[in-house]
Design goal:
Length: 298
């Protein structure tokens, strides 16, 4: 972190890390510009959620260049001039600081892996379902093993790895599709399971529910009613395939859907669940009901 608050900042990459930095510094008063190679921001998130987030960030004053790259950086007199290359041509921007948030690589160099059977692919260690590498007795967890790059995923992998080594009964491999993702920006973004695009590409027939926070009494009372909840169900079985949220404290709420995914809940289970009132969590119930044309408060 810089010793003083930069007046201007360029963030390269609009994934979770990039948008967390962009959102934080904008809230602190910095002028923030984000450059993203892909057509939209937050590429790992559901497209509807990402589109909503983009509008919210732009409303806050963050500038975006999508379908663009940073071609060159020149430092001079405590500032950095960046060349932004986009379909419409090149432009330049001068800022005080630049944050590179274009990906995560493993720190695998010069630690002795060359003389082992440990396989490294794209800077990440290859492991089996129990976090074991091809070298007997060598295990790896967390970001070193690849996405999702999340602390809670790493923690869970560490526990299951050690319990497996210790012979604890009932240990199960981690299903990464059941790991909730959280982006701590404003608005907060949270998700678990398939995006709508990924589910359809996998050939799943869907029932999709949506519920806006503006229709929720608690969100209105908090003065934070921008956002919505989206649910995806298998149209044939009722399985909860995915859930996506944007709004206040959704990083706390997503665990409800994560539990539902772990327990293999159907829409009937979630519809029969009593959600407390008045809470923002009621939007989660309504988004389930809406997928089946049964929403009550919209």
């Amino acid at each position: 972190m810089p010793e003083t608050l930069p007046k201007s900042l360029l963030v390269v990459g609009s994934g979770a890390i990039g948008m967390e930095f962009a959102s934080f510094y904008r809230d602190m008063g910095s002028e923030v510009t984000v450059v993203e190679l892909l057509p939209g921001i937050l590429p790992a998130e559901d497209e509807e959620i990402a589109a909503f987030a983009l509008k919210a960030f732009e409303k806050q004053g963050i500038a975006f260049h999508t379908n663009a790259t940073v071609g060159a950086l020149r430092k001079a007199k405590g500032k950095v001039t960046a060349t932004i290359e986009a379909e419409g041509g090149k432009s330049e921007i001068t800022v005080e600081r630049v944050v590179s948030a274009i990906g995560i690589v493993g720190n695998v160099e010069d630690i002795g892996l060359e003389g082992t059977k440990v396989r490294v692919e794209k800077s990440h260690l290859v492991t089996d379902a129990w976090m074991a590498t091809d070298e007997p007795g060598v295990y790896a967890i967390g970001d070193l093993c690849g996405p999702p790059w999340l602390a809670h995923k790493a923690m869970h992998e560490g526990v299951l790895c050690v319990e497996r080594i210790a012979g604890v009964e009932g240990v199960h491999p981690l299903d990464v599709s059941k790991v909730p993702g959280c982006t701590y920006c404003r608005p907060q973004i949270a998700s678990v399971g398939f995006t709508e695009k990924a589910a359809r590409e996998a050939g799943r027939e869907l029932k999709v529910g949506r519920f806006p926070l503006i229709a929720n009494g608690k969100a209105i009372a908090l003065g934070e009613s921008e956002g919505f909840v989206k649910t995806l169900f298998d149209a044939k079985t009722g399985e909860l395939l995915g859930a996506h949220m944007a709004g206040p404290e959704v990083t706390e709420l997503i665990q409800g859907y994560a539990i539902a995914r772990t327990l293999e809940c159907t829409e009937a289970d979630l519809m029969a669940t009593v959600f407390p009132h008045p809470t923002i969590s009621e939007t989660m119930h309504e988004a389930v009901l809406d997928a089946y044309g049964r929403a009550l408060h919209i």
